[in-house]
Amino acid sequence: MTALIEIRDLLVQREKKTVLEIEHLSVEAGEVLAIVGPNGAGKSTLFLTLARLLKVARGTIHFDGHSSLNTLEYRRRIALVLQEPLLMDTRVKDNAAIGLRFRGIPKAEAERRVGHWLDRLGVAHLAERPARKLSGGESQRVSLARAFVLQPELLLLDEPFTALDAPTRLRLLDDLQSVLAETSTTTIFITHDLQEASKLATRMAVMLDGQIRQVGEPREVFAHPADARVAEFLGI
Question: Which of 156, 5, 2 is nearest to 67 (CA)?
Answer without folding.
Answer: 5
